[in-house]
Amino acid sequence: MSKNKKTALVTGGSGGIGSEICRHLAAAGYAVIVNYNSNLEKAKTTLASLENDGHSLFKASVTDSGELSQLANFINKKYGRLDVLVNNSGITKPVPHDDMEGLEDEWIDRIMQVNFRGSFACIRACKSLLHKGENTIVINISSIAARTGVGSNVAYCASKAAMDSMTRSLGRALAPDIRVVSLSPGWVMGEYARKSPPEYIQQQKDKTPLARIAEAEDVAKALLSIVENFTFSTGCIFPVDGGRPLM
Predict the structure, then answer these.
(1) Number of domains present in the structure of the chain
(2) 146 close to 161: Cβ distance less than 8 angstroms
(3) Would you give the distance in Å from CA 66 to the centre of its chain?
(4) Has residue 231 been placed in a domain?
(5) Where would you tag: which of 31, 37, 41, 179 has the fewest CB atoms within 10 A of its CB?
(6) What is the CATH number of the domain that holds 181?
């Protein structure tokens, strides 16, 4: 494979949103590195679904800086560059916001470690590779919860707000060579949403001006457009929320 081919790393690439992002980037001609942490079978399924060639799997936890360093070394040896980094890994747990005892310290720490610290650590590990790319960009998969304070739990909302703050900080600090943006979906019909009662999902649709919940494809299509068309944008948050804040 030519080292001149553009490359993209997607953390959490075996999940519902992550796998769709991988497929859209591959179809656009990127060599995609599908990162996963535990679900090898899903990662293999994602890899097998990608168009074109030159794609890879790599197991690494975003909470382990040593493993991220190994991932960066792998990308450097095989591809020699990184053009797109998608920080998509994330975890959460449904806890009512007024149930303060229900949100244990352990879960607060885990959510912040994966959603915020993990994204920062990925950028740190891949910074030199991104400097070797062309029109390079980091896209942090955030959430409308960062702005509204409405989400699966208080810590989740805070972790996404921290991610958006990091986007603004690094958009300035890494310019002009590396763009950094957040992509901020509302509800997405992924693995988490499908576990919710149908009546709850209908309530979310009713609260959205466009009268539906986003599909993973909506997020992936927006991401690809940002990568290839919004080349004069950095440090900003792109909503994909169906107008939810208008209600």
Answers:
(1) 1
(2) yes
(3) 20
(4) yes
(5) 41
(6) 3.40.50.720
Alpha-carbon distance of 71 to 90, in angstroms, equals 18
pLDDT in tens, 60-105: 999 999 999 999 999 999 999 999 999 999 999 999 999 999 999 9
Q: Is residue 246 part of a domain?
A: no
CA distance 97 to 99: 5
Beta bridge partners of 178: 136
Q: Which residues are catalytic?
A: 156
Give the pLDDT score at 201: 83
d(CA 115, CA 67): 17
Question: pTM value?
Answer: 0.94
- Whether 244 maps to a domain, the answer reads no
Contact 244, 144 (CB under 8 A): yes
Domain containing 234: what range?
7-239
Alpha carbon of residue 178 to chain centroid = 17
- Is position 1 within any domain? no
